[in-house]
Design a protein that fits this description.
It comes from Desulfatirhabdium butyrativorans. InterPro entries: Acyl_CoA_acyltransferase (IPR016181), LPG_synthase_C (IPR024320), UCP018688 (IPR016732). Pfam families: LPG_synthase_C (PF09924). This is DUF2156 domain-containing protein. Residues 23-292 form the Phosphatidylglycerol lysyltransferase C-terminal domain. The protein is α+β, with helices and mostly antiparallel strands and 297 residues long. It has two domains: 7-120 and 289-294, Aminopeptidase; 122-267, Aminopeptidase. The chain is 32% helix and 28% strand. The strands form two sheets. Strands 1, 2, 3, 4, 5, 6, 7 and 15 form an eight-stranded mixed sheet that branches. A seven-stranded mixed sheet has the order 9-10-11-12-13-8-14, sandwiched between helices. Helix 6 (138-150) crosses helix 9 and helix 7 runs antiparallel to helix 8. The model has no long low-confidence stretch (mean pLDDT 95).
């Protein structure tokens, strides 16, 4: 099969990309179109298309391939070439567990895999986040109760009509967090701003906004990635309101349809504080990911 050149990701790619993403046996948050498109500039992401597969390459912080997207089980990997002509050894990152297992069976010792704990997705049972049952959720439930009792709040489903208010809250959040002093926070802010500004063009976005005394106090942005699963991309709140993060999380999840059984809250990227916070909500599962090195000869 002839190799197609890598080209920058465009909004025009969404429908074609999602058709292949929907055929993936395992869906990781990294590979949702919203995530790829949002981070395309930060990571220098580009796509190379084949009829039944799309390859993903990053240029920053160093050139690297991500896992290809398509129906992994239907592909004869022994006969499929990576779109890097002349390369006899290459690395891939963020490879979901199911694809890593397929490749290991196919390539044996020519495929080396290393666990990438920092990229594992945290997956929660929606019912657990709605009910917050048991002692393990005591602290979360206490903060939620304090918020619900202490503030004159109102929840609204996120929509294009709320984008400007969300952008204003995001700008304030960046001021509180001194985003200009952090490369990671300023980069994240660029991504969030672009996603909000292209709300309708990005398809299956959902979310919510919490108001306190009618002023925006928190918002969340999520995406439907499967019939029973959403991924939460963004969650930001005003630091003056105790329990605001527990509130926006609970209010959003409590209003999801019962068909949504799983909440993917992305990875911790090796940040110990973020890891502790994500573990504090007791994930039901992880989407494990690996770094893979392929040796062709």
């Amino acid at each position: 099969m002839p190799h197609q050149p890598f080209r920058p990701i465009s909004l025009d790619d969404r429908i074609r990309y999602e058709a292949l993403f929907n055929r993936c046996p395992q869906k990781a948050s990294d590979y949702s179109f919203v995530n790829l498109w949002g981070w395309r500039t930060i990571y220098g992401l580009s796509l190379a298309w084949e009829e039944d597969l799309v390859w993903i390459r990053q240029e920053a912080p160093q050139p690297m391939l991500w896992a290809p997207i398509g129906d992994w089980k239907a592909i004869d990997w022994a006969r499929r070439d990576v779109p890097l002509p002349g390369v006899l050894e290459y690395d891939m990152i963020r490879v979901p567990e199911h694809l890593a297992a397929i490749w290991s069976r196919c390539f044996g010792e020519r495929m080396q895999t290393t666990e990438s704990r920092e990229h594992w997705d945290y997956v929660y049972a929606a019912q657990d986040l709605r009910e917050l049952k048991g002692n393990k959720y005591h602290k979360k439930k206490n903060l939620l109760s304090q918020f619900l009792k202490s503030y004159d709040f109102r929840y609204e489903p996120m929509s294009e009509a709320l984008v400007e208010e969300a952008l204003s809250l995001q700008e304030d959040w960046c001021t509180w967090k001194s985003c200009e002093e952090s490369t990671s926070l300023s980069g994240e802010n660029e991504v969030i701003t672009e996603i909000l500004q292209n709300w309708n063009a990005l398809g299956d976005l959902i979310g919510g906004m919490v108001r306190v005394a009618e002023k925006p106090a928190a918002y969340t942005i999520a995406e439907v990635i499967d019939a029973d699963t959403i991924v939460v991309h963004v969650e930001k709140g005003h630091p003056d309101y105790k329990g605001i993060y527990q509130a926006v999380n609970w209010l959003f999840v409590s209003r999801l349809p019962e068909s949504i059984r799983w909440i993917n809250r992305e990875q911790d990227l090796g940040d110990e504080g973020l890891r502790k916070a994500k573990l504090g909500y007791h994930p039901a599962n992880f989407v494990k990911k690996f770094a893979c090195r392929m040796i062709l000869s």
